[in-house]
Amino acid sequence: MNTPPPAIFLMGPTASGKTNVAVELAQRLPVELISVDSALVFRDMDIGTAKPDAATLARAPHHLIDIINPTEAYSAAAFRHDALRLMHDITQRGKIPLLVGGTMLYFKALREGLSDLPQSSPGVRAALDAEIAQHGIVHLHRQLAKVDAATAARLHPTDTQRIQRAMEIYRITGKPMSALIKNPKGVLPYAPTDARIVGAYGNTPHTLPYNTLSIALIPSDRSVLHARIATRFKAMLEHGLLDELRRLREKYPLHANMTSMRCVGYRQAWQFMEGEITEAQLLETGLAATRQLAKRQLTWLRGMPENIELDCLAPDLSQRVLDILTENIRSAA
């Protein structure tokens, strides 16, 4: 049986230093970077997403950054399709795919495949939009709890995107999303064309055809990560997050319920611009939302026993990651 090609997953919560480490690795290893971030896919959304600047991207180009407009949507299924195509191409070029980011659902979809859930229905989605506008998302969360208690229990009552999607699935299929995920009808497969990989993996369609090494950047002190989050969010405001959102609203026909505008930071900036919160509340709610995001990301990472965990606060973090990768690449050769 031939050994599958290597791939590297570099994961961590927001403000853990993932990008800096990835850029350093790109200077020292034969890798190409693939962004695993549901916010970085949007064009013109730079400040609020902490997107790498032009100089950084010139040193270490990232795939899957700036690929769609803020009016469009991008899904875990779309990411899996794009990432697998890119990983195959990178491998064919004799390099190693290095996937870096904090959207854990994307990593999970890539590693495990996706349940065969129904495509979005514009009619059902419009009806749900109207309900949310009239009654609020907390009301829809209560409705979800009546028909899919398991899904409702794991979602925050204000998680508009996921609550709406879960309710949409129920109204399309008549079945709760939790049951469809537990007993999937099928898995969205990756059908590798490389004969060597097909030979190694046989007919297991959802198996990721790579020898993956997963590194998780975990803070040894959560309070230090929170301080980093505060510093970065304040810097976003100082560097023009509100002006960026104004330009986005002038350039694109946006509304508050679009996926792009539900990104942390932009959601709170939108509320401020609409007069729903004060300037002080903008900072307070932005920081709280970012800390909650980090908490969810860490929860995902704690549930991945295959990860090699490193302290993201270590002063020699990049060298530690490099040492681990170099040793594993050498032993796999």
Shape annotation:
globular
The computed structural class is: alpha/beta
User: Low-confidence parts, pLDDT < 50 over ≥5 residues?
Assistant: 184-205
Assign the CATH topology of the largest domain.
Answer: Rossmann fold
Q: Tell me the domain tally.
A: 3
Count the DSSP helices: 15
Counting copies of identical and different chains, the oligomeric state is: single chain
Helix content: 40-55%
Strand residue percentage: 5-15%
The largest sheet, given as strand count, sense and whether it forms a barrel, is:
6 strands, parallel
SSE series: EHEHEHEHHHHHHHEHHHHEH
Overall pLDDT, averaged? 90
Structure, explained:
The chain has 15 helices and six strands. It is α/β, with parallel strands linked by helices and 333 residues long. The chain folds into three domains: 6-114 and 189-220 and 304-332, Rossmann fold (3-Layer(aba) Sandwich), CATH 3.40.50; 122-182, Orthogonal Bundle (Histone, subunit A), CATH 1.10.20; 222-295, Helix Hairpins. The longest helix has 24 residues, at 279-302. The two termini are 15 Å apart. 35% of the residues are buried.
Provide a short characterization of the protein structure.
By secondary structure, this protein is an alpha/beta fold. About 55% of the residues lie in helices and about 10% in strands. Strand 2, helix 2 and strand 3 form a beta-alpha-beta unit.
